[in-house]
Amino acid sequence: MDLFIILVTCLSCLILVTLLNGSYAKKKLPPGPTPLPIIGNIIQLGTKDFSKSLSMLAKDYGSVFTVYFGMQPTVVLHGYEAIKEALIDRGEEFSGRGSLPVFDNFAQGLGIVFSNGETWKQTRRFSLLILRQMGMGKKTIEDQIQEESSCLVEAFKKTNGSPCDPTFLLACVPCNVICSIIFQDRFDYSDQKFHSLIEHFHENFDIISGPWLQLCNTFPFLQYFPGSLKKLLKNLAAQKKFILEKVKEHQESLDINNPRDFIDYFLIKMEKEKHNKKSAFTMDNMIVTIWDIFAAGMDSTSLTLRYGLLLLLKHPEITVNVQAEIDRVIGRDRSPCMQDRSHMPYTDAVVHEIQRYIDLIPTNMPHEVTQDVQFREYLIPKGTTILTHLTSVLHDDKEFPNPKKFDPGHFLDERGNFKKSDYFMPFSAGKRVCAGEGLARMELFLILTTILQKFTLKPLVDPKDIDITPSIKGLGSTPPFYELCFIPV
């Protein structure tokens, strides 16, 4: 009985402290739903469609509000004006990376995506410099994408017009492009290591987008229970081993006067700064940085392509219009190139509309304020996590009338010319904007145009019966499984 009284007393004190802390924080932070002790707002937020829950809360609390994940407050920014003000107008103050506990053991605050402070600044600056030197955004990478797209066409031809799941093949082009940048090599599509590499990244994206990982990020102690996190950690370990093997191969053949790829440049930088104790250029940081580049450079592009083909199956009239523009501008004999894009406003609009509509990363990666911030009428303490609700921008009904409809007209003016929009933020914005945005834009246009130049997309069911609802919608949106036939034209 004495033990029971002690436990009840301790629990009561804990709840009281939580309530007092919450009450104190609310005096500073933006308003929001009242959190419950220990679990915070998990009930209001749910786990099945987190983005929809935030939209509902925004109706009650406005464009800036606070929710609690467990006992940790998070400020949510909803709508273009609030997100632009934070990420672009006050980018430095909102440039921190918020915590994702499920990745802490793997990333250890290193790399580009999960790092902060000087480590992040040094690593991002160096990585962007080397990626540009390796041809990102230039003709050399364009040539590489065209070559890989030709390999993709041949792979689709081998299906002989039979039903196939395009998931793996659509990942091959962006993955091999990244491989050429990182370690100056590519894989044959039949290579088992290549299959495993792509499979692990696909599984990782599905897992981190699922409800269990959202709960693990909110309540880190759940990581020690059986669940999909174990699979994620196993995949991360296998990927780390793969990258480390490539680094060791490079160490044995390194010529400091003739760097071949990203790994060589990083190894040379490590050697130059080996006596600098504050240097970000370490072996551990290189491994995580390479993983970041792979994850960002492959997953987002392959998932967008997969979702894009599904949308085109659902809307064959749009596909016909794109193919008519391809015939008119490019023809059937030569490969599409980036110069064609300025003469293909409809196709360009379709690519943009795919990214807008699918809303791949609905709430963006979490940010963190790097100092105490007076934001509008609220005081946000240093270290507070910030969620930028990108759905609220990409699906803004004033900028994009009828945003739930897949309509390339959202990016076309009354004359049929391509129309830019400041609300187009699938890569985020500001200091933490995706480092591979230029590469992804190039890949999406060239790969999609090449596929539609060479094939007619044939669905297995009537287009009106095609379900385009995401199979998973958490941190990321995953398209449902489908098959189609690639019929050569």
Overall pLDDT:
91
% residues in beta strands: 5-15%
**Topology as a string of helices (H) and strands (E):** HHHEEHEHHHHHHHHHHHEEEEHHEEEE
Based on the coordinates given, report the CATH architecture.
Orthogonal Bundle
SS field, number of helical segments: 17
Give the proportion of residues in helices: 40-55%
Q: Give the termini distance in whole angstroms.
A: 80 Å
Q: Please give the radius of gyration in angstroms.
A: 24 Å
Largest sheet features: 5 strands, mixed
Low-confidence stretches: 3-13, 15-25
Can you tell me the overall shape? globular
Number of domains: 1
Structural class: alpha+beta
What's the β-strand tally?
11
CATH class category name = Mainly Alpha
CATH evolutionary superfamily: Cytochrome P450
Provide the spatial order of strands within the biggest beta sheet. 1-2-7-4-3
Binding site for heme: 434
Membrane topology: Peripheral membrane protein
InterPro entries: Cyt_P450 (IPR001128), Cyt_P450_CS (IPR017972), Cyt_P450_E_grp-I (IPR002401), Cyt_P450_sf (IPR036396), Cytochrome_P450_fam2 (IPR050182)
Protein name: Cytochrome P450 2C3-like isoform X1
What is this structure, in a nutshell?
GO terms for molecular function: heme binding; iron ion binding; oxidoreductase activity, acting on paired donors, with incorporation or reduction of molecular oxygen, reduced flavin or flavoprotein as one donor, and incorporation of one atom of oxygen. The chain is of the alpha+beta class and 489 residues long. The chain is built from 17 helices and eleven strands.
